[in-house]
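If your schedule permits, I should be very grateful for your opinion on a structural question. I have a record of one protein: its chain in single-letter code and its fold written as discrete structure tokens. Would you kindly read the sequence against the tokens and tell me how you understand this chain to fold? Thank you for your consideration; the sequence and its tokens are set out here.


***
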Amino acid sequence: MASTNSPAPRKRSLSDIKSNLMRPATTSHFDIFVRQPTGDSDYTWDLFKKENQLAGFSQDLLHLSCSQASLPGSAFMTHEVTSDFTGVTEKHAYRRQFDGKIDLTFYVMMAPSNVSTAQAVPNRYLPIRFFEGWMKYISAEEGPLVTSENYAYRMRYPKDYYGGLSVIKYERDYQSYLNYNFISAYPLSVNSMPVSYESSDLLKCTVSMSYTRYYITDVAGSKTDKTKKKSKETNSNLDNTSAFTEELTPEQQAMINSAFTTDLGFDLNIPDIETANGPLASNDFDFSRASTVPSFFVP
């Protein structure tokens, strides 16, 4: 059983406080990436963009236009257990519940100033036209028929309109970041945008994106990232004795461990180890020459 003793208070120096608390993360450094639908229906997303003057739009402009986003959250759904211990109520998790919606706010630009008129057409009012077009594609709107009073919408299959979304939170040094990846994302709504004859303000478009779940990729410089790099370096040098002086990956260590028999001997019929220079088989070790054998294999 884990100890319940709390640590005693300890003195903190000013240098400790500075080194730990003087580099806070800020809210003004982030980026987004929107992945477009990839459905393979007869009427593809690419064909829709071509017919609605969205083909060739600048995705970089769309990403740069995002002025506000939010990092998602999640919670566990639990059920209460009251009968296992007298007077004790426990909560056991049985499902992870995601927010399911993220709001993105975009600045609306007339068009980039550094492109020709023909290139500017697909980028005019881009956030509005892009997300309204995506919703139009979801509901399978057809040009002239949509003006009819009796027009009925018929939604596409989800696999045809699902896209993706990433929100990257980084810092000024561009070395630390969190990458939130959203699965099966698509625009759920486009909020109304008031316009007025009063003093001019920037036109903004707020879009609510639906998603099924999200996951966070490894932070740059994390232990996992270093392990992958170390694994790559080690695999590329497995034919050198020096490679065995470095830390092995769990997979490589398991390979080597499996070579030892129950009588503490060494089984030469170990499976081949894949390296960057091809498979490394057990017969590649010449046990008559200690220089080609890891030191811990030499009796």
